[in-house]
Write a structure and sequence with these properties.
CATH class: Alpha Beta
Strand order of the largest sheet: 1-2-3-7-6
CATH topology: Rossmann fold
Number of helices: 12
Strand content: 5-15%
CATH architecture: 3-Layer(aba) Sandwich
Structural class: alpha/beta
Distance between the termini: 57 Å
Bound molecules: thiamine diphosphate, magnesium ion
Length: 376
């Protein structure tokens, strides 16, 4: 198994037990086992205020993301997509759950595993795929590629390739939102590798400090997929209780089973509301797993076993959600139809990307500086 949270090293990690967003029994008991769990989460039966149509819509979104990532992987192997490409496959429930509670005026910032975030926030799949293909019709005119998706109108503030580099930006944006008198929040996703970066520690310190005055509505979403590239959590730090690192900065936190959409929805609803109301940061560690290699080029994986991947695949977030929906009485035909529709959306995106023109050469000189254009 990839990771077991070092129980003996753990001291009490959270005061969230007493706070308004107390960890449920399920999330607390999972804190020491960052490994797949054979049973669905108990809190997975709750899905906040979402009705069944909304849940089916989330299933559609997760399925679309998976098809999208599969298609991107194919495009990469065919040499049609260049540069770096990092897939979100296996982690869909995390972004899908949290971004369900996005409100206009919020800001979302993440690292380079960003396709799902763009799609969930409403970027057109055609434009996202065209961006991966480096085409002029891409979301950022083919100049950003997979790692640098941006869609400010829809709340996406990137898409960053420098590990940890986006964390101070997100914390600063959260400060700005309060300074400007809004009730927006920042959802800031980071990986289990990024948390060891100095930028995280400096930014988390300020977030905690400013949060005491209600000036830092940052929701840290720590996506612990057990690896940073080929390095497992145990090989990256002697203190493997990652969410406990937030204690150092006075930021309360809890864990969630990141493979279980319903558990994520439950936590996300409470956490976003809490951050919005208090203006103080909060952190969630979502225990998850990428079933794809770190990057699309890394198909030779020596750092994890086939058995480990197979075990996590049994808790694939889409499979789990599907099982839950069937149990709840949704017809198999309904889910099949959703999958067909999702596949068609992705097929259309691939077609659009393939048929789109390369960016104009003149585009080399636009968007270089902020403002209306290039000055001499
Ligand atoms: C500052 C910096 N150092 C190293 C790298 C190389 N690098 C790219 S991804 C990565 C691992 C990050 O792991 P994690 O934060 O867990 O994110 P995940 O890939 O698992 O989503 C590293 C070290 C980089 N991009 N930037
Ligand atoms: Mg990771």
């Amino acid at each position: 198994m990839a990771t077991t949270k070092g129980q003996s090293r753990r001291r009490k990690t959270s005061s969230s037990d007493d706070g308004p967003v107390a960890a449920s029994a399920t999330t607390r008991s999972r804190r020491n086992a960052k490994s797949p769990s054979p049973a669905p989460s108990r809190n997975g039966s709750e899905a906040g205020a979402l009705d069944s149509d909304a849940i089916l819509d989330l299933f559609r979104k997760m399925t679309t993301i998976r098809f999208f990532e599969d298609a991107a992987q194919r495009g990469f192997r065919q040499g049609k997509i260049g540069g770096y490409l990092h897939l979100y496959s296996g982690q869909e429930a995390v972004a899908t759950g949290f971004l369900s509670y996005y409100q206009e005026g919020d800001k979302i910032i993440t690292a380079y595993r960003d396709h799902a975030h763009a799609l969930l926030l409403g970027s057109h799949p055609n434009e996202v795929m065209a961006e991966l293909y480096g085409k002029g019709t891409g979301l950022v005119k083919g100049k950003g590629g997979s790692m640098h998706l941006f869609d400010v109108e829809n709340g996406l503030w990137g898409g960053y390739g420098i590990v940890g580099g986006h964390i101070p930006l997100g914390v600063g944006m959260a400060y700005a939102l309060r300074y400007q008198g809004t009730d927006g929040i920042v959802q800031l996703s980071l990986g289990d590798g990024a948390i060891h970066n100095g930028a995280f520690h400096e930014a988390a310190n300020l977030a905690g400090l400013w949060g005491r005055e209600g000036m830092n509505p940052t929701l840290f979403i720590l996506e612990n997929n057990n690896y940073g590239m080929g390095t497992s959590v145990e090989r990256a730090t002697a203190m493997t209780d990652l969410s406990a690192k937030f204690d150092s900065y006075g930021i309360e936190h809890e864990d969630v089973d990141g493979m279980d959409l319903f558990a994520v929805l439950d936590v996300a609803e409470r956490a976003t509301q809490r951050v919005r109301e208090t203006g103080a940061p909060y952190a969630i560690e979502a225990i998850t797993y990428r079933i794809a290699p770190h990057g699309a080029a890394d198909f030779l994986e020596r750092y994890r076993t086939k058995e480990e991947i197979a075990e996590w695949r049994q808790r694939d977030p889409i499979g789990l959600a599907e099982a839950r929906l069937l149990e709840a009485g949704v017809a198999e035909a309904t889910l099949d139809e959703i999958k067909r529709e999702a596949k068609a959306v992705v097929d259309e995106a691939v077609k659009f990307a393939e048929e789109s023109p390369e960016p104009e050469i003149a585009e080399l000189y636009t968007d270089v500086y902020a403002g209306d254009g290039v000055t001499g």
